[in-house]
Amino acid sequence: MKKKSMIKKINEWKSKGYNISALQNKMSKLDRNKDFKKQKEIKRRAKIKAERDAKAAKKYAEMIEKQKNQRQKKQIEALKSAKQKVEMVKRKEMNAAKAAKEAKIREAKEERMEEIKKQKRIKAEKQRVEMAKKQAKIKAERDARAAKAMRKAKIRAAKKRARRTGKHKKSGHAKHTKHVKIKTAKAFAHQKEFHKEIHKEEYVRTGVPGFDSLFDKGFGIPSGMSVLVEGGPGSGKTIFCLSTVNGLCKQGKKCLYMSFEEPEERLVEHMENFNFRARDFIKRGLLRVKRFDALDVSRSVEALLSAAKKELLIEIDPVLFPEDYKPDFVVIDSLTSIASAFSGQESRFRIYMEQLFRYLENNKITNFLIREVATPAHVGSTFKEEGEAVSFLSDGIIVLYNVIYDSGQRGAALEILKMRGVGFARKLVDFKIINGKGVVVDSNKILKKEKQKGFQLT
Question: Distance (Å, rounded) from C-alpha 280 to C-alpha 271?
Fold first, then answer.
């Protein structure tokens, strides 16, 4: 009941003389309830305001804290960036110092290499001069002895002519003739012994049956020569070289077989299968069979060229040859494998070949270098083999052919195409690979086409 209606009713009851105490109590109670609700509303609003103020204060505090954290984060990032800049500067200084040190070391190393190369060149030049002097001395002695023997032979011929014409005096004739005969015989014996000595020192007999007889007087290959042994696949190049190694080891010469294809054990087994005493030669230090990687050679040559600033005067001996073994004869099997490792680098391969031949020549090592050709390069073919320049660098060329007869049978033939310093038979001869013996050359059997029997070389 509202207050106005309550007052109106009280006035009505009062005019009528009714008891209005109950209504007055009810009105006072209503006033009290209204005050209570008002206070309650005031409290509620105060509470809401307090909560709102608390939230605002909390949000403000969080904002302040966030701003503080952001400032701290920026400060940390600034310090970190400054530290990184300092470290970067230090790193650059360290790298610069390291580069300077490495450059200094590299320059010192290059200077040492230049000095070593210079010393080696001087040493090689001295060796060449000494060898030239020695050879000139030997040639002069040989010419002098030959001239002396020729003079004595002329004297003997003159004496014979004098005896025939009767101009020679009878007195003391028999005594003088006997004296001349004795002197001439001594001269020829001395000359024969001298040629034997020259033959022993300056020529290498391979020991391959029938092969050495292709040379004048059976002398063999001149010592220190670099000889190419070339032919197609299956023509017998490796067996020919192994037979040569066997013959030289029997003579007490030290041989080194350098393989770039087959493993050592397989090559030793090949020799044993032909009754060559390979393991005995190895045990006695007369033979060493070693396998090499052609790619290692290519990388080593590239490194040496880089170290020498792309100069051509590099030394090959540290690339290939073992330092603890000094051979008299070397087989390199094969140049084809080495050339494949220099694929696309023809100039590198040519430099390597030039230096390899120079090393072999300076060390007076007689050597066979195997080269596989896809087709016979010397029977009219126009095919250009990779690394063809080695034919001009080599002192000799031995060519092995596969022979296909018109009947369908196959055979083998051998030819000495080139050999400096010695005469040789210019003919194509038959050879065979025989079990238990190896290569046997029939120097008297010349390969030629007949009416009923033609052939083709491959």
Answer: 11
pLDDT digits (tens, 9 = 90+) for 373-402: 876 655 544 434 554 557 777 899 999 999
Q: Residue 28 is which amino acid? A: S
Please report the beta strands in 388-449, taking only residues with DSSP state E, as ranges in sequence order: 396-405, 410-419, 429-434, 438-446
Number of domains in the chain: 2
pLDDT in tens, 74-133: 999 999 899 899 999 999 999 999 999 999 898 888 888 888 888 888 887 888 788 778
**DSSP secondary structure letter of residue 322:** -
Domain with residue 252: its CATH number is 3.40.50.300
Domain that holds residue 353: 205-457
Domain boundary among 170, 203, 236: 203
424 with 437, same domain: the answer is yes
CB 370 within 8 A of CB 334: yes
**Could you give phi then psi for residue 225, rounded to 5 degrees?**
-80, 150
Closest-CA residue to 299 (of 258, 357, 344, 348): 348
Let me know if residue 73 belongs to a domain: no
Separation of alpha carbons 24 and 374, rounded Å: 139
Q: Is the pTM of this model over 0.85?
A: no
Whole-angstrom distance, CA of residue 339 vs CA of residue 303: 17
Is the CB of residue 424 less than 8 Å from the CB of residue 416? yes
- The share of the chain scoring above pLDDT 70, in percent, equals 81
